[in-house]
């Protein structure tokens, strides 16, 4: 049942028998979609393929969160020629534009009620580029020719963890000109979400990303301490008594 639900999110007329309808492809037969933990991926992971390991972690987390993945095969910055922290945490290159058209198309196809983009805290180039996609989409509806959906109010930005924790991020002003592409008639406002009943589940979910934990946190315990600490900090900033997350939501003026 879960596999059928996941397939139906990719195209609306999913078949419970996993058969083609009206000439549409069977999602499980596409190389970038399909079954969780496929043989090809597990074999690649065994051969120490870093990308395969990350892909498996993404699929395991999606299964854990009862979510669906739409994979577009966009390579990480390290596979696009960025080297070292100075480049990875610097400005995107002029020859490395944000994938605005591709992401806009895929997101619009899903007709979402809410879309979350990274805020770009910490300056990772991939996060900056995806943030710029969100900013571009907010501006779409202000075009006089062939206007698009009204994305203001739908697009929100999340605070990149653990970068926001490391940098003691507190206010939107700390991004400098990171939101310079924001339309003049759209504002970004903070929204706080109490996550007290989800905190331990969030920590359990993060343990799935085994390849990332040593580099980012050292070990699982330090990761859990960071998640709890950051949650308490955001809760205090929002005037809440427990743990919280903060999102920066777009709002038409």
Tell me what the structure shows:
The chain is globular, with a radius of gyration of 19 Å. Helix content is 39%, strand content 10%. About 7% of the residues have low confidence. The protein is built from 10 helices and 4 strands, in the order H-H-H-H-H-E-H-E-H-E-H-H-H-E. The chain is an alpha+beta fold and 253 residues long.
Regions with pLDDT < 50 over 5+ consecutive residues? 7-16, 31-37
The helix/strand class is: alpha+beta
**Strand residue percentage:** 5-15%
Strand order of the largest sheet: 1-2-4-3
Nearest-integer average pLDDT:
83
Using the CA coordinates, give the radius of gyration: 19 Å
Tally of DSSP helical segments: 10
Number of strands: 4
* Amino- and carboxy-terminal Cα gap: 43 Å
Shape, please?
Answer: globular
Approximate helicity band: 25-40%
Sheet of most strands: 4 strands, mixed
Order of helices and strands: HHHHHEHEHEHHHE
In quaternary terms, these chains amount to single chain
């Amino acid at each position: 049942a879960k596999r059928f639900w996941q397939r139906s999110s990719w195209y609306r007329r999913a078949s419970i028998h996993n058969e083609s309808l009206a000439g549409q492809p069977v999602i499980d037969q596409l190389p970038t979609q399909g079954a969780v933990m496929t043989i090809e991926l597990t074999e690649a992971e065994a051969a120490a393929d870093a990308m395969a390991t990350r892909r498996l972690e993404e699929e395991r987390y999606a299964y854990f969160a009862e979510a669906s993945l739409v994979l577009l095969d966009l390579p990480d910055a390290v596979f696009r020629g960025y080297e070292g922290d100075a480049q990875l945490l610097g400005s995107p290159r002029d020859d490395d534009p944000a994938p605005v058209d591709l992401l806009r198309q895929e997101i619009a196809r899903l007709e979402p009620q809410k879309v979350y983009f990274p805020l770009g805290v910490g300056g990772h180039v991939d996060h900056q580029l995806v943030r710029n996609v969100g900013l571009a989409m907010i501006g779409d509806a202000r075009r006089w020719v062939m206007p698009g959906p009204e994305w203001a109010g739908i697009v929100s930005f999340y605070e990149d963890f653990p970068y926001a924790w490391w940098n003691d991020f507190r206010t939107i002003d700390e991004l400098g000109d990171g939101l310079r592409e924001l339309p003049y008639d759209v504002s970004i406002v903070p929204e706080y979400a109490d996550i007290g009943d989800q905190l331990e589940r969030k920590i359990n979910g993060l343990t799935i990303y085994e390849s990332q934990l040593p580099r980012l946190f050292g070990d699982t315990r330090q990761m859990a301490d960071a998640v709890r600490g950051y949650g308490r900090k955001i809760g205090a900033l929002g005037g809440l008594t427990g743990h919280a997350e903060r999102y920066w939501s777009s709002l038409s003026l």
